[in-house]
Design a protein that fits this description.
With 481 residues, the protein is α+β, with helices and mostly antiparallel strands. Helices cover 58% and strands 18% of the residues. Bound molecules: adenosine-5'-triphosphate (ATP) and magnesium ion.
Length: 481
């Protein structure tokens, strides 16, 4: 018991891990997707901002450069005048330098660069003849810098440098990024929540199947697992219920068989006990004692026959098949009839054989012998003195038919459906008197079916019974084709 509960615990733990693992994989995948979307959207929005800013800043620089290029001389006064004519450019700082990089104009009044070399990288590049733009995001503001060369008749005479310090756009980008991040976090939270809910619901259904399995393992075959829905798990539940139903049926059959068998074995044993008690207690003469001992022998024979038949039944049911062979039925039937001729003679039964229409079938020779033996024996045993028994072989389409017809007592219609059950006898007293255990036809049915055959019975009380056994024929020529 301790081992079982330990196993259960282990299974539970493994199951929990699986659920956790799948949940984690799901969360990681969605997290990766969301992160990608996050980086992609904020990157794209920054790029868009960059491109529009670059275009507008360079345009402003170029406008200013064009104005400066028209000046006759580039000195602080002329530059300041030119800038004044440009109107408001809405930028934070503008520097104009000559071709050596010395500032001739600086819009910044305090800490002005006027008259000094401007060593900004944008200025250096612009003096090399390039349009330059750069930006950086710093302290919630965006700093954009642009510089373009000033060319007068193709000759570089200076450069214009502009810097814009934009808090509005900076905060726009910042809020955009923080919004995307918040949405990402909320989405991930929702994903985590849903993955927990769904994986729990999913694993709850699995656990239900598992706990049903455990209940059935403990022997409660009547238990059913309830799975709603139309998905694979519901299908699994249905299959599982079918399986347990079959288990229950076979368990019931097994219990019935054990109780029937012990009941049947008890009767001859009780007779033996009674007879031995009588011999021991009574002061009987030698002849009576001999008669009693004879009866004990008969009961022992019956026990022996019964146990042999039980063994043969369980052997068939455990599918211990031998090697099938292709045989004609007539020789086996003749052997059986020879074997039972003594019994037929004793009971005054005339046996007829009509075996001309024989066909080969694939069967265990031993099974065919047993089938024929039981049917012929019944036809003799349940016959009336002076009656007849006819064994015929027929053929219809692809079937070989064995028919055993007697003119005996017959079987009442209500018993016909039961005669193939184990231990079933129509007339217990008559059957027991003739040594019957009610197992013969159960064995016959099992053997016929395991050789792909079918058996049927027709009977009229007082007129007789016909057993018809059908096997598929096995024509060697056809099979080879
Ligand atoms: P066993 O064959 O095990 O020695 P049995 O003959 O009683 O015992 P079955 O062969 O299984 O058992 O037959 C079951 C019952 O069916 C018989 O007891 C008998 O009542 C009835 N029965 C079988 N064959 C015939 C028949 N040809 N005519 C009339 N009744 C029959
Ligand atoms: Mg029988």
């Amino acid at each position: 018991m301790a081992i079982i509960s330990e196993n259960n615990r282990k299974k539970h733990r493994q199951y929990g891990n699986t659920q956790f693992r799948y949940g984690l994989i799901y969360i990681c995948i969605t997290l990766a997707v969301l992160l990608f979307l996050n980086v992609y959207t904020s990157g794209t929005s920054q790029k868009l901002f960059y491109q529009s800013k670059q275009a507008s800043m360079i345009e402003k620089c170029q406008l200013a450069s064009a104005e400066i290029a028209n000046l006759e001389v580039l000195n602080p006064t002329a530059a300041a005048n030119a800038v004044a004519q440009m109107g408001s450019l809405r930028i934070s700082r503008m520097i104009i330098t000559d071709q050596f990089g010395t500032a001739v104009y600086d819009s910044l009044e305090s800490d002005s660069a006027l008259g000094r070399y401007v060593l900004l990288p944008e200025v250096v590049q612009a003096l090399e003849g390039n349009d330059v733009f750069s930006w950086k995001y710093h302290d919630g503001a965006m700093q954009s810098r642009a510089a373009t060369p000033v060319l007068s008749y193709g000759t570089l005479i200076g450069c214009v440098y502009m810097m814009e310090y934009d808090i509005q756009q900076g905060s726009l980008i910042q809020s955009l990024q923080s919004n995307i991040l918040t949405i990402t976090l909320i989405l991930e939270l929702v994903v985590v929540l849903f993955s927990i809910i769904f994986s729990n619901a999913f694993s709850r259904r699995f656990r239900r199947i598992l706990s049903s399995m455990r209940i059935i393992r403990e022997g409660d075959y009547s238990h059913k697992v309830v799975m709603r829905g139309k998905d694979e798990l519901a299908f699994l539940g249905d299959e599982f219920n079918d399986l347990t139903e079959k288990l229950q049926t076979s368990e019931n059959k097994r219990r019935q068989f054990v109780s029937d068998a012990s009941h049947e074995l008890k009767t001859p044993l009780a007779s033996i006990k009674l007879l031995t008690d009588s011999i021991l207690q009574n002061d009987m003469d030698m002849d009576t004692a001999r008669e009693f001992v004879g009866d004990i022998g008969n009961e022992a024979d019956r026990l022996n026959r019964m146990t042999q038949k039980l063994l043969s039944l369980s052997k068939i049911e455990s599918q211990q098949d031998g090697d099938c062979e292709i045989i004609y039925m007539a020789p086996t039937i003749e052997r059986v009839v020879r074997m039972l001729s003594g019994l037929a003679e004793k009971n005054g039964i005339h046996v007829n054989l009509s075996l001309a229409d024989d066909s080969p079938i694939l069967i265990l020779e031993d099974d065919l012998y047993q089938i024929t033996f039981n049917l012929v024996e019944n036809g003799i045993k349940y016959n009336t003195p002076g009656g007849a028994l006819t064994v015929s072989l027929l053929r219809s389409e692809d079937n070989a038919i064995l028919q055993v017809r007697d003119t005996g007592v017959g079987i009442p219609p209500e018993s016909l459906s039961h005669i193939f059950e184990r231990f079933y006898r129509v007339d217990k007293a008559r059957s027991r008197k003739s040594g019957g255990s009610g197992l013969g036809l159960a064995i016959v049915k099992n053997m016929v079916e395991r050789n792909q055959g079918q058996i049927s019975v027709e009977s009229t009380v007082g007129q007789g019974t016909v057993f018809t056994v059908t096997f598929p024929t096995f024509d060697t020529e056809e099979e080879e084709l």
